[in-house]
TrEMBL record:
InterPro entries: AA_ABC_Transporter_Permease (IPR051322), AA_ABC_transptr_permease_3TM (IPR010065), MetI-like (IPR000515), MetI-like_sf (IPR035906). Keywords: Cell membrane, Membrane, Transmembrane, Transmembrane helix, Transport. This is Histidine/lysine/arginine/ornithine transport system permease protein HisM. The HisPMQJ complex is composed of two ATP-binding proteins (HisP), two transmembrane proteins (HisM and HisQ) and a solute-binding protein (HisJ). The HisPMQ-ArgT complex is composed of two ATP-binding proteins (HisP), two transmembrane proteins (HisM and HisQ) and a solute-binding protein (ArgT). PANTHER family: ABC TRANSPORTER PERMEASE, HISTIDINE TRANSPORT SYSTEM PERMEASE PROTEIN HISM. Residues 23-218 form the ABC transmembrane type-1 domain.
C-alpha cells in the first residue's frame, strides 16, 4: 500500500494545474452541495411548518420525492436524463450547464440534501418551546422579526446534532460522483486499481481518506455543539 500511495499520492492529495486532486474535488462537492442545500432549506423549512396548505404542500411533495427516490437515480436524471431533452440542448445556457458532469453532480447533491435538511430544520422549529415564541410576541415582535431573531436561530442550534449526521451521509454519498466522470477520491481509487490491480491498497487508501474527513467533520460539529447547545444543558446545583 505504501508503494502505491507514494506513486499516486499526487492524484489523491495534490492538485495539478486546473485539475483538483481527489480529496479537493470531494471536499468541493461536499461544500458546494451542503452550502446550496442549506441556503434553500432554511426558507423551505419555514414554509414546511406553515399552517397554509398551499404553502407547505409543494414543499412536502418536494421532500417526499427526493427522500423517496435513490440519490443515484437523481444523479442519472440530472446528468443524462435532462440533457436528453431537446429544449435543454437548444438553450445555450442550459446546454452549457448540463454538459458538465460536475454541475449536474452538485445540482443533484444539493437538491437531495436540501430535502433532508428541510425536514430536519422543520422538526427543529416544531420542537421550540411555545413559551419562547409567546415571550417574543409579548415584546411586540412581528412575524418577520420573530422568525429572524428567535425561531430560526433557535431551530438551527437545536438541529445541529441531526444536521451533522446529514453532512456525514452527504460525504459518503459523494462516492457516486464518479458516475458523472467527476474525479473525486473514489474515481482516483478506481483509476489506481485499474492501473495496478491492487484493489485492497487502492480502495484502502480511499477508505482512510474518507475516514479522516469524516472524523474531522465530527470533531468540528462536536465543538460547535459544545458552544451553541450549552443553553440546553441542565443547570448544576
Amino acid at each position: 500500500m505504501i508503494g502505491i500511495f507514494q506513486e499516486y499520492w499526487h492524484a489523491f492529495l495534490w492538485s495539478d494545474g486546473y485539475r483538483l486532486s481527489g480529496v479537493a474535488m470531494t471536499l468541493w462537492l461536499l461544500a458546494a452541495s451542503i452550502a446550496f442545500g442549506f441556503c434553500l432549506a432554511v426558507p423551505m423549512s419555514v414554509a414546511r411548518v406553515s399552517e397554509k396548505l398551499y404553502i407547505r404542500g409543494p414543499v412536502w411533495f418536494y421532500t417526499y420525492v427526493f427522500r423517496g427516490t435513490p440519490l443515484y437515480i437523481q444523479l442519472l436524471i440530472c446528468y443524462t436524463g435532462i440533457y436528453s431533452l431537446q429544449v435543454v440542448r437548444d438553450n445555450v445556457l442550459l446546454d452549457a450547464f448540463f454538459r458538465e458532469g460536475i454541475n449536474c453532480t452538485i445540482l443533484a447533491f444539493a437538491l437531495n440534501t436540501c430535502a433532508y435538511t428541510t425536514e430536519i430544520f422543520a422538526g427543529a422549529i416544531r420542537s421550540i418551546p411555545y413559551g419562547e415564541i409567546e415571550a417574543a410576541r409579548a415584546y411586540g415582535m412581528s412575524e418577520w422579526r420573530l422568525y429572524r431573531h428567535i425561531i430560526i436561530p433557535s431551530a438551527l442550534r437545536r438541529a445541529l446534532p441531526y444536521y451533522s449526521n446529514e453532512v456525514i451521509l452527504m460525504l459518503h454519498s459523494t462516492t457516486i460522483a464518479f458516475t458523472a466522470t467527476v474525479p473525486d477520491i473514489l474515481k482516483v481509487a478506481r483509476d489506481v486499481n485499474s492501473a495496478t490491480y491492487a484493489s485492497f491498497s487502492a480502495f484502502g487508501i480511499a477508505a482512510i481518506l474518507y475516514a479522516c474527513i469524516a472524523f474531522a467533520l465530527v470533531w468540528g460539529f462536536r465543538r460547535c455543539e459544545l458552544r451553541w447547545l450549552a443553553f440546553l444543558k441542565p443547570m448544576g446545583h
